[in-house]
Write a structure and sequence with these properties.
Strand content: under 5%
Helix content: over 70%
Shape: elongated
Radius of gyration: 19 Å
Oligomer: single chain
Order of helices and strands: HHHHHHH
Length: 122
């Protein structure tokens, strides 16, 4: 499981990514440090994606006041927004939901700049 809070989905993706290479290395008795480093390097892109997700989460949860969070949760609790979240929300791929909310939820647009900065600059 990624240590960045990635959850079970990225954990399974990590297994799918590593097991074939690890199995082949074990079958061929190729267990050198270089081989293991090469296999570990497969996780770099996943780790980068998890850092972006963490930055986005932190931008919303740790850098906002309680009042700002209350206003956001009030918007997210509206039935039409909840319907969007239920229809387009995917914890592993939040982009389609974000785009839909930018188009259909005016209050969400204000957050887009903050979210973009968090993803781009951490």
């Amino acid at each position: 499981k990624p240590t960045t809070g990635g959850g079970i989905g990225p954990g399974f993706n990590q297994v799918d990514l590593l097991v074939p290479r690890l199995s082949k290395s074990m079958e061929n008795n190729e267990l050198s440090r270089g081989t293991m480093n090469s296999i570990s390097a497969l996780l770099k892109e996943m780790a980068r994606n998890q850092r972006k997700k963490r930055a986005l989460r932190d931008a919303f949860l740790t850098e906002m006041s309680d009042n700002e969070l209350e206003r956001i949760f009030d918007v997210w609790a509206r039935p039409e927004v909840t319907d969007l979240i239920n229809e387009f929300g995917d914890i592993e791929n939040p982009i389609p939901l974000g785009i839909k909310m930018l188009r259909e939820v005016p209050e969400f647009r204000r957050l887009a700049g903050r979210a973009a900065k968090a993803v781009l600059w951490g």
